[in-house]
Design brief:
Strand content: under 5%
Helix content: 55-70%
Structural class: mainly alpha
Radius of gyration: 19 Å
Largest sheet: none
Oligomer: single chain
Order of helices and strands: HHHHHHHHH
Number of domains: 2
Length: 208
């Protein structure tokens, strides 16, 4: 799993004694969880199903995750919005838009997104975990862009300003995506970048 996916990870640490755990099985279990989440939703998914689909024993699964909610949370954290986008590098505005498109797009796995929203509503602690992961990822990427903006001559952002910037982005994305977690239209993301986020990042609108 990626470094971003490891943030707030719910997987149990390997036991200090006994046989070492085969980390390749983690990826197989995560893949099986995502497949079943898309097929059955959160309610229909069971740990028995995950173990069977992954081709591992239930003991192997429970040594890694003690509950369905935990393995699902770690599986969801591996989805594309948690991976850095391919920044075009043509301008700060284009790179910021690339980030917003990446984190605002749910079209690749709509069934999984729906199941995740269902799961989050049922488990407030998981909602907090997933939100924290997403917020940490977004802030880290915005930090990269803020440093580029400072290198280009714009006023550098303090840590507090970066925190507020990240919180603003996450809140606006959640508002636009709605309770179902729908993908945000590119046109709306463009307006958001040009007239709000570029102002926060550089002090001027992209259109100007």
């Amino acid at each position: 799993m990626t470094d971003q996916a490891n943030l707030h990870q719910r997987r149990l640490p390997a036991a200090e004694r006994g046989r070492s755990q085969d980390r390749s099985r983690d990826d197989v279990i995560i893949s099986a969880t995502l497949e079943l989440l898309g097929e059955k939703g959160y309610h229909g998914l069971t740990m028995t199903d995950v173990a069977a689909r992954a081709g591992v024993s239930k003991a192997t699964l429970y040594r890694r995750w003690t509950a369905k909610a935990d393995v699902v949370a770690d599986a969801v954290a591996t989805l594309n919005p948690m991976d850095p986008p391919r920044y075009p590098g043509t301008s700060l505005r284009d790179d910021l838009l690339a980030l917003m498109v990446q984190v605002g797009n749910c079209d690749d796995s709509p069934e999984i997104v729906t199941a995740t929203m269902e799961m989050a509503r049922l488990h407030p602690d998981l909602y907090r975990t997933l939100t924290a992961r997403f917020g940490t990822f977004v802030r880290a990427e915005l930090d990269k862009l803020a440093k580029r903006a400072a290198d280009a001559g714009h006023a550098p952002m303090s840590e507090v300003e970066l925190d507020v910037f990240g919180d603003t982005v996450v809140a606006l994305l959640a508002h636009y995506a709605g309770p179902a977690g729908a993908s945000i239209p590119r046109e709306r993301l463009i307006r958001l970048v040009d007239h709000v986020l570029m102002v926060l990042l550089t002090g001027t609108r992209a259109a100007e």
